[in-house]
Amino acid sequence: MERIQVHDKTFVPLLTADQISLRVAALAKQIGEDYKEKRPLLLAVLNGSFMFAADLFRLLAIDAEISFIKIASYQGMRSSGKVVTAIGMEQDLSGRDVLLIEDIVDTGKTLHHFIPTLLQQHPASVRVATFLHKPDATVYPVSLSYVGFEIPDRFVVGYGLDYDGLGRNHHQVYQLATGDADES
Ligand code: 5GP
Which helix (H) or strand (E) segment is 32 a member of? Predict the structure, then answer.
């Protein structure tokens, strides 16, 4: 694989398409076993997770539903700070086994703030499947049940992940080249 240019930055190969498809298949098998006879509701967090969610979902050999949401965060009126809500969440989650599908867990902030919002609807269970995890960057406690790959704390693109709108359509994952400043 060659290095690529996205906007003003250079990226180098990190994960091949083969590595990704093998790992996604293994995750789908594991999830299929863990949720056998449970009919989970996958909630894919847009935009970045759409490719991972589609590949994972088509390999699931059990009855399952999928829905797509966007997470929006804004500063609340009170001192308690951030309010995190989901856009596009129409399902009743009560009693459901919810599996959140994320592209990447970086600091963990998004999920740390969002999961309590989900729990207010009394799902039977909430777990997280993330394609990528940057353990060295994670500062908010989040429990991750399924992780595709643990990667270094450098900005990545490809397989659904973008840099300022571009780079999502690569089959591979690329990381920012050393020497290119990481401003993420
Ligand atoms: P967190 O709240 O865990 O810090 O960040 C999660 C979100 O930040 C991800 O869903 C993703 O949209 C974005 N993000 C974090 N790291 C990266 C990265 O290396 N590349 C891209 N494209 N997005 C990232």
Answer: helix 17-34
